[in-house]
What does this fold into?
Amino acid sequence: MRLSPRFTPRFTLFQRTILWLFLNQLFLVALFWLIPLPSWFSRLPHTQRYDANQRMESVATLLADELKDKTSVERDAILQRYSRAYRVSFSVYDNDTQARLAGATETLPEAAVRELQTPPETRPIFSLTTYHPMRYWAGARILVFNQDRFTRATLFASSDQASGNGLFFDPWGWLLTIGLLNVISILFWLPFAMHNTRFVAQMTRVTEHIADEHFDARVNESRSDELGRLGKAINHLATRLAGFVKGQKRFLGDIAHELNSPLGRLQFALSVIEDNATDEQLPDIAEAREEVELMSKLVSELLIYAQAGLKTSTVELETVQLHALAQQVIAREASGAQVTLALDESLTAHAHPELLARALGNLIRNAVRYAGAAGPITLAGAAQGDHITLSLRDCGAGVPEAALSKLFDPFYRLETDRARATGGTGLGLAIVKTCIETCQGRVFARNRQPHGLEIVITLPAIAIEQVVSSR
It folds into this structure.
């Protein structure tokens, strides 16, 4: 199914990204050309060649001065000292004869020999790279006093590293430049990225609320790009889902209401038949009555579920004394089971008393039915900031972990003892969830260790707005 666009964005997200990239480059150019540069700018890449030539020329001048009036052995010692200091290999060769005058004994590659044959004034300082093995070379023209005369020579410095350990090339300038550009670019892109990620995070929160059936959650629709369109689509989806769910509950309520009358007539008819039945017919009539009562119970719970859901936007919440309410519910639903109440008498919550009592009643009834014989049942509660937490804990077998998230779904029943044979309709916990959410709270289940089930309810301690804020 192809969706037609509802609006044309003023700037697409791709166009905004490209525009921001262009502004980033423009900002960097302006920064380096218009702002006074710091003192360490001499270490930046565009000055590297000048600095390398200057360093090589300085070393050549120092060496030429030290090599004057020295013997061959002394010259070798001087070059070895320089080699250790600069961590490169120094050697001096005669330009005319290509003979080694001092320094490391190594065979010059053809490229270096050609440099010896090049007129000094053409390339006073040079660099080259040779292969097999790979080495990096730099050279400078010097005069060496040899055999009572000055000889034109070339000072070679070679290394297996491109930087020559800082003599040919200082990598810190590049690293400093790259680091500076990265920091500036990150700071420049940070507002753009945060603006987008905040909006994505907002959409994530809203979709999570929608997944939890809070269909009143909304995304800010101020954006005009693809993300803004997605936000509008999420809002439209929430509105549609709210309509569907409300219509479904109204439909279920209407059906349940319409079924009450024929079920009542059917029960009356069974009573009349039972009065005139023979002893052989009574077991069949009793079985039919049991099925009708089960159907009547299902219809009643279906009606309660639908009505609770439809009251969400109209119910008025008030301050409820939880201890007194819980005592009434336990007295009505516990049926002699061991239920311990651990609530402070002053603890209050902002809720609807009838809906909260119905939710607690369903939970206690379930706990007594399925775990009453396994040990004590405890209803506890405490204030936590602006919320009240109630927990109902039993000592039963618990439920499979995979079923915890489905317990509050309508008509969901476990395949074990919590099945139809026990009289359950699969709507009890769904009614609990609807009642608690109508009271602006939430409910979830978790297993206890080593065994048992705990149902946790959170309710507002003070009055809050029912609209989910999405900023």
Notes: The radius of gyration is 44 Å. The chain is about 50% helix and 15% strand.
